[in-house]
Amino acid sequence: MDAINWGYFVIMVTAMAVGFGLSRWTQSRLPLPPSQRWGIALGAFVGAMFGAKLPFLFEDWERFLDGFSWFSNGKTILTGMAGGYLGVEVAKWTMDIRVRTGDSFVVPTAAAIAVGRLGCFHAGCCFGKPTDLPWGCVFPTIDMLPRHPTQVYEAGFHFVCVLVFLWCYQRGWFPGQLAKIYLITYALFRFATEWLRPELPIYAGLTGYQVASLVMVGLFSWLLWRDLKLGTKPDLRQETA
User: Fold this and answer.
1) Which residues of the chain fall below pLDDT 50?
2) Per the CB 3.0–4.6 Å rule, which of 59, 77, 90, 124 could disulfide with 141?
3) Structure confidence by residue, pLDDT tens digits, 9-50
4) Does residue 82 contact residue 176 with C-beta atoms inside 8 Å?
5) SS3 sequence, the chain?
6) What is the pLDDT of residue 59?
């Protein structure tokens, strides 16, 4: 059995604690009882875990069918975020919740991912292609070549998102649409930075993550356009049936 990377473990636990702590604050403003808030949180967690594993399950149907893939390594934040969004929508549908809750998830999610990506940097995973740039980092887990610290790039992106979306959330800007805007922005960022990652192309010179990014941009742009066209209500206001 491989030794536990305690540094990575501590950072990831910190990431979860940061996300949980911030979500307690943002969701305290929702006009919902604790049971419904926990139900939504559970939907987000289950959806995110399923979405994060989905690309790897398609790669190995045998391990998917015997259940092993669910507990093995391999997760991706990109589809995990989309899965979390879907999980929240399913949870709200089952509990007949009509309050917009997406805005309350953006800052906690961005903060948790920002800290978690520093864990990836510490563990030497999710690195980029070799580079001659002065900030290139050597990851002994692969070779001794300086590489793009794509984990740090992504951590920086999400830290900026924390500041930007916190500003928007506190001022009531784009009510009910912050989650969609965040997902679109991240998908565009991931599409661009995939050129710096050593992933193999699968279609038209694009990696699987780039294809997934384009699908996410298209889907959430359509959802955003639909909501703006129909008109939206503030995030904390109860919708009428």
Assistant:
1) 1, 70, 233-241
2) 124
3) 899 999 999 999 999 899 888 888 989 988 998 998 888 888
4) no
5) CCCCCHHHHHHHHHHHHHHHHHHHHHHCCCCCCHHHHHHHHHHHHHHHHHHHHHHHHHHCHHHHHCCHHHHCCCCCHHHHHHHHHHHHHHHHHHCCCCECCCHHHHHHHHHHHHHHHHHHHHHCCCCCCECCCCCCEECCCCCCCEECCHHHHHHHHHHHHHHHHHHHHHHCCCCCCHHHHHHHHHHHHHHHHHHHCCCCEEECCEEHHHHHHHHHHHHHHHHHHHHHHHCCCCCCCECCC
6) 54
Q: Compute how many other C-beta atoms are within 10 angstroms of the C-beta atom of residue 67.
A: 8
The alpha carbons of the chain give a radius of gyration, in whole angstroms, of 19
Q: 178: closest CA among 169, 187, 170?
A: 169
Give this prediction's pTM.
Answer: 0.85
Show the tokens assigned to 99: 């309050």
Domain boundaries, the chain: 6-31+99-230
* Residue 26: C-alpha distances to residues 22, 37, 77, 109, 168 (Å): 6, 11, 22, 11, 13
* Cα gap 97→100, rounded to integer Å: 8
Tell me, what amino acid is at 87? G
